Amino acid sequence: MKIAILSRNPKLYSTRRLVEAGTQRGHEVQVLDPLRCYMNITSLKPSIHYKGNELTGFDAVIPRIGASVTFYGTAVLRQFEMMGVYPVNESVAITRSRDKLRSLQLLARKGIGLPVTSFAHSPDDVDDLIKEVGGAPLVIKLLEGTQGIGVVLAETQKAAESVIEAFMGLKANILAQEFIKEAGGADIRCFVVDGKVVAAMQRQGREGEFRSNLHRGGTASLIKITPEERSTAARAAGIMGLNVAGVDILRSNHGPVVMEVNSSPGLGGIENATQKDIAGQIIAFIETNAKPHRTRTRGKG
User: Fold this and answer.
1) CB 230 within 8 A of CB 197
2) Half-sphere exposure of 89 (CA within 13 A, CB side)
3) 4 backbone dihedrals φ, ψ, rounded to 5°
4) How far is CA 257 from the centre of its chain?
């Protein structure tokens, strides 16, 4: 098979591992910078060009699109879908999961456990917004944030009011969420492939840090998850429409709550913590499922 990986950096661990796994299994793998792809949008013969050459003959595409290039990256992926190339994650599912508010609303509608979350537009509603999530301490998140950037723990009512008013003053969209104190600065990353949790790790924030992201100095370790956590992660990925996803869960007093569903989860931390060949499992998923024009959403919304 001929497989494209949409990634801005071929040297990243995740990209290298996918190339390695695909090549080992006898496939031709090409890394493409989505921002260097340009498209001919036509009804009869949609095409993608890359550095002066037309891209042809691809059977599957693995999107590793960074949050900062979501708009253009998903447009390129949509063009691959129009050409009949099988996407590991569809453009619609990626766009859905990148919108924090939309994804939480979809998960809530299907009864997935979530931290109590509030969203408002007017500064006049700040007091009530804070009250809705149980008061301070609470977590305030920028809707566009990623890898723990734009996430603030407000430990007092006054601090929460100041942070929310500052963000609103910058015209930034924010969420307020209850702080799950019992999680102790740790979360669980469940890696889902084809509707099954294939690996799980616990991420622990460094001393004095409530965010557990590995990019922020957190550490990863192997963990045994409960059947309820396994089911929650698999269902969350399915609701987003993602075949490959990293589902971040907190252990709360009222069961597992989903913090985020990530459409381009990193492989480094989880492969090192679990010693599992997850890149190989993603390639195996492609081998089983990649058929021409098999995009479920057919480029809709």
Assistant:
1) yes
2) 34
3) -100, 140
4) 16
What DSSP state is assigned to residue 35? G
284 by Cβ neighbours in 10 Å (0-12 / 13-18 / 19+) ranks as middle
Q: Which residue has the tokens 């057919």?
A: 298
C-beta atoms surrounding 82 within 10 Å: 20
β-pair partners for 154: 138
CB atoms within 10 A of CB 276: 16
Q: Distance of CA 176 to CAs 104, 109, 259, Å?
A: 12, 19, 12
DSSP secondary structure letters along 3-26: EEEE-S-TTSHHHHHHHHHHHHTT
- pLDDT per residue as tens digits for the range 239-290: 999 999 999 999 998 889 999 999 999 999 999 999 999 999 999 999 999 8
Could you tell me the domains of the chain? 2-95 (3.40.50.20), 117-179 (3.30.1490.20), 182-284 (3.30.470.20)
Decide: 79 and 85 in contact? Cβ < 8 Å.
no
Please report, as a single letter, which amino acid is at residue 279.
Answer: A
pTM: predicted TM-score of the whole model, two decimal places = 0.87
What's the CA gap between 46 and 55, in Å, rounded? 11
Q: In angstroms, how far apart are the furthest CA atoms of the chain?
A: 60
